[in-house]
């Protein structure tokens, strides 16, 4: 190998870190790539765990699946011989008089039919005025337009929580992002139904065992992957990046890619810039816990349980309608569980600052199979106002790059795209140019989060990047000023 190869460190072996390493690893003559991961396995939150009890079963934990538009994820998997299993999304929200699904009419749908019909026009208005509504939480917009609390808390908020995993911060999600879920051809999961709200069971997919998949991919990247190697200090000086691990070993790199959470970046980075502190410090994380269990009685008590059909469940807390609880029937989702006679559920309890309303102690302790705590970020409207617009001004500064789902939207696909984008900016090629949708999604991300076209020249993407540049500077200036006044008046 040439001795003048660029030394690159990727911090984190989750989806974004593995994607960055994959793209850079295709050019061993140009890059000497090292991946440091503090945990004992690759994949980040995408893990596979054993389930206690008969049958020697395993389940994917943290990440379950995705939709067919996850083209970059699917292409990366195919490169290493992996495929997915199709499933159809079946949801069951509420209970009793508040119950509704995407496959049958219920009394709640009939009761709210006028608001359901009117909501389509509201979505189109939000989409047209996206620049304004990016700063407005969906709860405020629904209040302005006179929607009932029942429509908000029993229909709109649960569905938004399902889309984004925003949990108890759902009322604060940007209205513009909610509209995109229904109207954006590349992002939407459902078509809005003016009579039933939702009336489709769209095709999704379930991942193969993620632990094995990421073990295989990381072993075949052709780069140096160090598991259980935690970064404790990053100092940038003299056009070099000096990195210290937990054992006190220091190594010098030319470039560093942070493929970890924003909290870790700010913890280890000894000289963060003003914009790094503002953008990354605005990513808010919450402590959630997932309980995997086989308690039918608990599920029947809190949800309308159709054991052989439903996959997703959400209930609104009766004492505080702004709080949600989410559950999954993994036996109707993950293929390795479908052929068993066991019903494996997961219930997620969100934000431990509200644990006084959790129903976790109602789950039969003898039927709990696995419990896991998570540190999850929630992309409220503040995330899209004060973090996402600033990311383009962080990329490449002081030889530092940022990737991960927190840079835009919390999906596995965005994590993969973000890693490919960081590698691309360093000189790697985009690996899936023949997939039109995958390339389009990559180029859109590159334009928004890096402010760069995929190919500089006389083309539409270049024109868009030049046109967006002054607009984004104004937007960021306005966002920072707006955030200053929010903090001045104690609203942030």
From TrEMBL:
Keyword Membrane belongs to the record: yes
Record key words, sorted: Membrane, Transmembrane, Transmembrane helix
Domain spans labelled Amine oxidase: 210-423
Instruction: Kindly give the InterPro entries that the UniProt entry links to this protein.
Output: Amino_oxidase, FAD/NAD-bd_sf, Zeta_carotene_desat/Oxidored
State the Gene Ontology terms under molecular function: oxidoreductase activity
Transmembrane annotation, as ranges: 466-486
Asked whether the UniProt record includes Membrane among its keywords, one would answer yes
Family matches, as SUPFAM superfamilies: FAD/NAD(P)-binding domain (SSF51905)
Q: Which domain of life is it from?
A: Eukaryota
- The identity of this protein, by name, is Amine oxidase domain-containing protein
Q: Which organism is it from?
A: Lymnaea stagnalis (Great pond snail)
């Amino acid at each position: 190998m040439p001795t003048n190869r660029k030394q690159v460190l990727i911090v984190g072996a989750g989806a974004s870190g593995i994607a960055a390493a994959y793209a850079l690893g295709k050019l061993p003559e140009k890059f000497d790539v090292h991946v440091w991961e503090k945990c004992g396995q690759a994949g980040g939150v995408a893990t596979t765990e054993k389930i206690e009890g008969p049958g020697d079963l395993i389940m994917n934990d943290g990440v379950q699946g995705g939709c067919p538009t996850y083209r970059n994820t699917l292409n990366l998997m195919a490169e290493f011989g992996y495929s997915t299993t199709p499933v159809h999304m079946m949801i069951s929200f509420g209970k009793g008089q508040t119950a509704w699904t995407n496959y049958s009419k219920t009394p709640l749908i009939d009761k709210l039919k006028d608001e359901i019909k009117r909501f389509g026009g509201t979505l189109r208005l939000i989409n047209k005025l996206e620049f304004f509504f990016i700063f407005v939480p969906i709860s405020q917009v629904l209040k302005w337009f006179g929607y009932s609390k029942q429509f908000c808390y029993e229909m709109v908020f649960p569905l938004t929580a399902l889309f984004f995993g925003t949990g108890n911060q759902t009322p604060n999600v940007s209205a513009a992002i909610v509209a995109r879920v229904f109207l954006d051809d590349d992002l939407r999961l459902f078509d809005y139904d003016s009579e039933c709200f939702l009336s489709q069971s769209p095709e999704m997919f379930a991942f193969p065992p993620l632990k094995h998949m990421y073990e295989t991919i990381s072993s075949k990247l052709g780069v140096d992957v160090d598991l259980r190697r935690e970064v404790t200090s990053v100092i940038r000086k003299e056009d070099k990046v000096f990195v210290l691990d937990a054992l006190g070993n220091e190594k010098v790199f030319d470039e560093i890619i942070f493929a970890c959470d924003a909290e870790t970046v700010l913890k280890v980075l000894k000289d963060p810039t003003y914009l790094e502190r503002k953008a990354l410090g605005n990513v808010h994380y919450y402590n959630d816990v997932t309980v995997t269990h086989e308690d039918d009685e608990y599920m029947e008590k809190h949800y309308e349980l159709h054991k052989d059909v439903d996959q997703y469940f959400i209930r609104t807390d009766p004492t505080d309608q702004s709080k949600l609880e989410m559950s999954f029937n993994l036996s109707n989702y993950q293929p390795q569980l479908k052929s068993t006679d066991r019903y494996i559920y997961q219930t997620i309890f969100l934000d431990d600052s509200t644990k006084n309303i959790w129903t976790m102690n109602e789950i039969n302790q003898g039927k709990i199979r696995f419990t896991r705590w998570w540190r999850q970020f929630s992309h409220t409207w503040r995330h899209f106002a004060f973090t996402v617009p600033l990311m383009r001004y962080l990329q490449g500064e002081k030889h530092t790059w940022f990737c991960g789902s927190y840079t835009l939207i919390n999906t596995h696909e965005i994590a993969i795209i973000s890693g490919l984008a960081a590698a691309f900016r360093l000189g790697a090629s985009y690996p899936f140019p023949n997939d039109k949708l995958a390339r389009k999604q990559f180029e859109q991300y590159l334009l928004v989060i890096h402010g760069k076209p995929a190919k500089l020249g006389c083309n539409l993407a270049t024109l868009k990047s030049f046109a967006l540049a002054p607009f984004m500077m104004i937007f960021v200036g306005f966002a920072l000023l707006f955030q200053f006044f929010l903090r001045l008046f104690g609203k942030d």
